[in-house]
Amino acid sequence: MSHAPPAVSRELGADEAVRYYVDSAAVVLGLDPEITQVLDSSYREVSVQVPLRRDDGSLLVVHGYRVQHNGARGPYKGGLRYHPEADIDQVRALASLMTWKTALLDLPFGGAKGGLQVNPAELSPGELQALTRKFATSLSHVLGVYRDIPAPDVNTNAQTMAWFMDAYSARNGYSPAVVTGKPVELGGAPGRDAATGRGLVYVLEAAAARWGWDLEGSAVAVQGFGNVGRSVAQELHDRGCWVIAVSDVAGGLYDPYGLDIPMLIEATADGRSVTGVDEAYARISNDELLRLECNVLVPAALGGVITHENAGDVKAALIVEGANYPVTPSADQIIAERGISVIPDILASGGGVTGSYFEWAQNIQQLQWSEDRFNTELCVRLTRAFNAVAERAESHQESYRLAAYCIALERVARTVRVRGYV
Predict the structure, then answer these.
(1) Which domains does the chain have, with CATH numbers?
(2) How many other C-beta atoms are found inside a 10 Å radius of the C-beta of residue 38?
(3) What sign does the dihedral 10-16-21-26 (CA atoms) show?
(4) Residue 46: which region, alpha, beta or left (left: phi > 0; alpha: psi -120 to 50)?
(5) Nearest by Cα to 147 from 169, 179, 115
(6) What gap in Å lies between CA 194 and CA 160, rounded to an integer?
(7) What three-state secondary structure class fits 284?
């Protein structure tokens, strides 16, 4: 029997959209409404005020959040993003997504997310460090190695995690396992930086193998040239794909015969935009990139970029979601009607949290893996997760998104029942 979520007549906010997918899967699974009610809401939501004395003497008051969605399967896990739009609604949605992502990948974590409503590009390095340390201190009472473990996300990185860990450790003793995505010198795992992008490519390889695709020579467009987008572009370039377009917040570059990805990565290593590269590539906007004719489109920037307004113009054969929630529910329906396949975010972008699990476990054991072992384990877990989703989607005639949510919800619901929450 074929299952499809109910039609969406308007664009949903981020939190509404995730609950829509959760509720749709719950109906398909026939979950007890009381369990669905638990899974729909967050366990804890912390809102903090972080005042920062700036270098010029002025005071900046930044609002921050940490949402812990569901911890039935283990300690909360989720990134910290610094972005002006990281409000409570967005953070709440991303925390829920982490619950389903960790469950789908069968990791012993629950879901959480944190955010500071600030543009870090407007802060000096000293201001950014001071802000991060204050944020860590303000959240320290709800964090812990077996309680809640932050990681990098949009506009945060290994250095951010180093400051965050050090501030937490000042109060609680040296605690490398309290954050992941750290520098290797502080217990970070070799391979973790590239894990999200590399994991996406492992999922794409598993899909190609299952569907009889030949990735070599495929045309790929990547929206977003941050940590995830760069890794995806490099990995696919190394596999013989033609990465025909990449972009960042300032715009993008396009060449139908493929871009020189290693050159672009080197040229933007200091934070410059790809649009500043002195090469004879066509300049395109982010919206134009989404409309390019290609085999694979990877939205790896921010959420909500493919909507009902532009979904009809997407010409890719396959969308692989590198960002959280890049395709809205209304766009999802249009894309499905047009026969375009989608590998959802909770599967495609699962490499980051899987790599974080490896790092966390190594920190607890005080044992560091080699990067080869890290990547091998990453490939095994993501390939296994993809095949589980594919098998359910094929046997139940469901979309990959619905199948992924059904697997994740079933696992969390089972744990909720066993622990006696309802």
Answers:
(1) 42-186 (3.40.50.10860), 195-348 (3.40.50.720)
(2) 17
(3) negative
(4) beta
(5) 179
(6) 16
(7) strand
Question: Hey, what are 230's tokens?
Answer: 């760069």
Q: Identify the three-state secondary structure at position 296.
A: strand
48 DSSP β-pair partners: 64
Helix 195-211, helix 227-238: angle, nearest 10: 40
Contact predicate 254/245, CB 8 Å: yes
Q: How many CB atoms lie within 10 A of CB 3?
A: 16
- Angle in degrees, CA 414, 41, 36, rounded to 5: 40
Rounded Cα distance, 99 and 102, in Å: 6
Per-residue tens of pLDDT for the chain, all 422 residues: 446 677 776 788 888 999 999 999 999 999 999 999 999 999 999 999 999 999 999 999 999 999 999 999 999 999 999 999 999 999 999 999 999 999 999 999 999 999 999 999 999 999 999 999 999 999 999 999 999 999 999 999 999 999 999 999 999 999 999 999 999 999 999 999 999 999 999 999 999 999 999 999 999 999 999 999 999 999 999 999 999 999 999 999 999 999 999 999 999 998 899 999 988 899 999 999 999 999 999 999 989 999 999 999 999 999 999 999 999 999 999 999 999 999 999 999 999 999 999 999 999 999 999 999 999 999 999 999 999 999 999 999 999 999 999 999 999 999 999 999 88
Question: Which residues form the catalytic set?
Answer: 113
Tell me which amino acid residue 35 is: I
Cα–Cα distances (Å) from 205 to 230, 317, 339, 380, in that order, read: 17, 15, 20, 12
Closest CA to 299 of 310, 313, 289, 309: 289
- Alpha carbon distance 213, 44 (integer Å): 44
Q: Is 280 strand, coil or helix? A: coil
The length of the chain in residues reads 422
Give buried/exposed letters for 59-74 (b at 16+ CB in 10 A, else e).
eeebebbbbbbbbbbb
Strand order in the sheet with 59-70: 44-53, 59-70, 110-116, 76-82, 148-152
Are residues 75 and 109 in contact, defined by beta-carbon separation less than 8 angstroms? yes
Beta strands 251-254; 76-82: pairing state: unpaired
The one-letter amino acid code at 234 reads Q
Question: What b-and-e string marks burial along 394-421, b requiring 16 or more CB atoms within 10 Å of the CB?
Answer: eeeebbbbbbbbbbbbbbbbebbeeeee
